[in-house]
Amino acid sequence: RQFDPTHRDTRMSETTPPASREHLLPIEHRRRRALFRANHRGTKELDWLIGRYAQARVPAMDEAEMDVFEPFLAVPDPDLHAWIMDPARLDQNAFRPIVADLRKFHRLAT
């Protein structure tokens, strides 16, 4: 197939939000990207909390688990920090199992 500069690839258009495109990437690429994001949060506390958790758990995550973990990484740092320190703030959030496992991993669970 020859290069056509007028051709637009509609499979992953620029109007599709990046988070909704994550499932189109191979699982190993998704895992590497998630590990990087987990270790580069913006605060040292969350880099450590989420990064160490991700290093231990992400290599074994399947597609369905990655479909939940990737949006978790997109949550703003203040919200993540509040949820980790006080899981009661989560209510019935979809991230409740991740936060519970993260707290257990770091022995923060009561």
Describe the structure in your own words.
The chain is built from 6 helices and no strands. It is mainly alpha-helical and 110 residues long. The protein starts with 17 loop residues before the first helix and ends in a 5-residue tail after the last helix. The mean pLDDT is 85.
The counted number of beta strands is: 0
Helix tally equals: 6
* H-E order: HHHHHH
Instruction: List unreliable stretches of 5+ residues.
Output: none
Q: CA-to-CA gap between the ends?
A: 60 Å
Q: Biggest sheet, in brief? A: none
Give the helix level as a range of percent.
55-70%
Shape: elongated
Round the mean pLDDT to the nearest integer and report it.
85
Rounded to the nearest angstrom, the radius of gyration is 17 Å
Beta percentage is: under 5%
Q: From the helix content, strand content and strand pairing, which structural class follows?
A: mainly alpha
Features:
mainly alpha, 6 helices
Summary of the model, kept short:
The chain is mainly α and 110 residues long. It is built from six helices and no strands.
Secondary structure layout plus pairing:
Blueprint: H1 18-21, H2 27-39, H3 44-57, H4 63-73, H5 77-85, H6 96-105
